[in-house]
């Protein structure tokens, strides 16, 4: 049995794939199983996979018709034999010894999931979230409810499936939903619910490439899937973690409000109407869970001072929210 199965879904990434695979194979050893899932690429991505397979014959290549990211991940997961699974996107790359660092921590601390920090990687600079690298912040372990709380906060634990080491027997029981954008939001809370211990290593071990044309860089009706995923999470948490349902409802409402503000600025009437209606729906359905949230009360009951509320929120987020450190690349 392998220790780690690394699953890389691949679709038309010929310009980035070698960088991804070079970073992966630099830390390859016989305990690592590499599964490359070519999801119907129409460029030279499959040929590049075969080049690497010549040098690393144990590499498994799945060549399938295009079915989307979830379908590709599911295909790799179905044949994985490792004790742990690590998902890696094909335009990203790994820090040196990332897999060794994660696996050693998982084994030492009996973790079901371990995640590392990451860089937002642009062509000529990196951005690092300061919350991951506070002075003196050492790796730590969370119990299940603590991890679910952190997922709701979206600070240390985010929706991303990549960059985390998962116990294989857990993820095999929870396929990714097909046909959804932001599929991780439908999935991550189900995984955490199965864990006993969740490890966090603040040091950046993953480079998350930011490029034009990526799903995460566009705002459209696709973003409704992120709201749907978080609403499903709210229903799940209400059933299984009732003490967390109010902060989860507040998180959903704030995300919906943010999308509504973005939609107003996008210049598309149909998008604007879509997110206005969604915000109204969320407020109506979950008002009993939201009425204790200070930001919601101000926005909902004091419309005359809503601009002031938004200003205070922006100032608060600037002072206490996500802070990114820019690192220039020479």
Helix content: 40-55%
What is the SS-derived class?
alpha/beta
- Using the alpha-carbon principal axes, give the shape: globular
Describe the largest sheet. 11 strands, mixed
Query: Helix-strand pattern, N to C?
Result: EHEHEHEEHEEEHEHHEHHHHHE
Mean residue pLDDT: 90
Rg estimate, integer Å: 21 Å
Estimated share of beta-strand residues: 15-25%
Low-confidence stretches: none
The number of helical runs is 12
CA(first)-CA(last) distance? 42 Å
How many DSSP-defined strands? 11
Quickly describe the structure.
With 330 residues, the chain is α/β, with parallel strands linked by helices.
General description of the model:
By secondary structure, the chain is α/β, with parallel strands linked by helices. Helix content is 45%, strand content 20%. It has helices at 17-25, 45-55, 69-79, 98-109, 144-153, 168-171, 184-193, 224-240, 245-265, 269-290, 294-301, 306-320; strands spanning 4-10, 32-39, 60-64, 84-87, 93-94, 113-121, 125-129, 140-143, 164-167, 197-209, 324-328. Strand 1, helix 1 (17-25) and strand 2 form a beta-alpha-beta unit. The N and C termini lie far apart (42 Å). 35% of the residues are buried. The mean pLDDT is 90.
């Amino acid at each position: 049995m392998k220790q780690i199965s690394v699953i890389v879904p691949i679709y038309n990434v010929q310009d980035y794939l070698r960088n991804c695979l070079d970073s992966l194979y630099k830390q390859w050893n016989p305990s690592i199983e590499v599964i490359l899932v070519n999801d119907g690429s129409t460029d030279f991505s499959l040929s590049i996979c075969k080049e690497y397979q010549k040098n690393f014959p144990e590499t498994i290549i799945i060549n399938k018709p295009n079915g989307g990211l979830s379908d590709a991940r599911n295909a790799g997961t179905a044949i994985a034999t490792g004790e742990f699974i690590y998902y890696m996107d094909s335009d990203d790359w790994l820090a040196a010894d990332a897999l060794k660092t994660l696996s050693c921590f998982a084994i030492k601390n009996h973790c079901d999931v371990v995640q590392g920090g990451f860089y937002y990687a642009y062509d000529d600079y990196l951005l690092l979230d300061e919350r991951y690298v506070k002075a003196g912040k050492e790796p730590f372990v969370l119990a299940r409810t603590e991890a679910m709380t952190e997922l709701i906060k979206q600070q240390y634990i985010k929706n991303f499936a990549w960059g985390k080491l998962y116990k294989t027997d857990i993820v095999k029981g929870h396929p990714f939903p097909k046909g959804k954008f932001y599929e991780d939001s439908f999935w991550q809370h189900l995984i955490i619910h199965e864990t006993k211990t969740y490890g966090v290593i603040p040091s950046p071990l993953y480079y998350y490439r930011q490029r034009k044309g990526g799903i995460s860089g566009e705002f459209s009706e696709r973003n409704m899937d992120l709201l749907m995923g978080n609403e499903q999470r709210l229903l799940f948490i209400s059933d299984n973690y009732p003490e967390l349902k109010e902060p989860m409802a507040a998180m959903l409402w704030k995300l919906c409000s943010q999308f509504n503000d973005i939609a107003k600025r996008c210049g598309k009437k149909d998008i604007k109407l879509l997110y206005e209606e969604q915000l109204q729906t969320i407020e109506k359905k979950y008002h009993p869970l939201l009425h204790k949230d200070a930001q919601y009360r101000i926005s909902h009951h004091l419309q005359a001072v809503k601009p002031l509320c938004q200003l205070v929120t922006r100032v608060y987020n600037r002072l206490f929210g996500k802070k990114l450190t820019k690192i220039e690349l020479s």
